[in-house]
Automatic annotation (TrEMBL):
<feature type="transmembrane region" description="Helical">
    <location>
        <begin position="82"/>
        <end position="104"/>
    </location>
</feature>
<feature type="transmembrane region" description="Helical">
    <location>
        <begin position="6"/>
        <end position="31"/>
    </location>
</feature>
<keyword id="KW-1133">Transmembrane helix</keyword>
<feature type="transmembrane region" description="Helical">
    <location>
        <begin position="43"/>
        <end position="62"/>
    </location>
</feature>
<keyword id="KW-0472">Membrane</keyword>
<feature type="domain" description="DUF6534">
    <location>
        <begin position="89"/>
        <end position="172"/>
    </location>
</feature>
<dbReference type="Pfam" id="PF20152">
    <property type="entry name" value="DUF6534"/>
</dbReference>
<feature type="transmembrane region" description="Helical">
    <location>
        <begin position="116"/>
        <end position="136"/>
    </location>
</feature>
<dbReference type="InterPro" id="IPR045339">
    <property type="entry name" value="DUF6534"/>
</dbReference>
<keyword id="KW-0812">Transmembrane</keyword>
<protein>
    <recommendedName>
        <fullName>DUF6534 domain-containing protein</fullName>
    </recommendedName>
</protein>
Length: 172
């Protein structure tokens, strides 16, 4: 019985760790993309501190989750999760805003050729909508975790959030 319990627990922890790894790698992909296409590298490097801090706090939260035997006990590690996701919201917003700003300023230097301007505007629209979806998924998870802490609603949103991040990266 004890082996079966820990087997299920390890399975749930593996899903949580996999989701965090996916979200972190997608954010890192977008940050590296910013660094690659930025004319001023300082602007792209501005995005790194909130990302690194959110990854560190997520690792602390996941380490705390491994020690807790069931989901309602995870409320003990609530402050780590709130801190990590607040920084994730900031990081997602900065990434999306920086990408939109860079695309907008690059489009101003392009001569008025209809096709190129339309492509750049489509990229700006896609970046804004994708960044907004990623940003809103993190906000909704944080709100449901705060407002409905003892339910599985936030866990369901959390598990879909990793897939939303991966789909956003694959859409590039």
């Amino acid at each position: 019985m004890l082996v079966a319990f820990y087997g299920v627990l390890i399975g749930h922890i593996a899903v949580l760790v996999f989701t965090e790894i996916c979200c972190g790698l997608v954010e890192l992909f977008f940050i590296l993309r910013l660094c690659r296409f930025a004319e001023k590298k300082r602007l792209a490097i501005f995005v790194f501190p909130p990302y690194i801090a959110s990854v560190a706090l997520n690792l602390v939260y996941l380490q705390g989750m491994i020690r807790l035997p069931c989901f309602p006990d995870s409320l003990a590690a609530r402050s780590w999760l709130l801190s990590a996701y607040s920084l994730k919201i900031l990081s997602d917003g900065i990434i999306a805003g920086t990408m939109i700003w860079m695309l907008y300023h690059r489009s101003r230097g392009v001569r008025s050729q209809g096709g190129t301007i339309r492509v750049i505007r489509a990229l700006i629209y896609w970046t804004a909508s994708t960044g907004l979806v990623l940003w809103l998924s993190t906000i909704v998870h944080l709100l449901t975790y705060t407002l409905l802490p003892a339910t599985y609603v936030s866990l369901g949103i959390y598990l879909t959030r990793g897939r939303i991040y991966v789909i956003a990266m694959l859409a590039v």
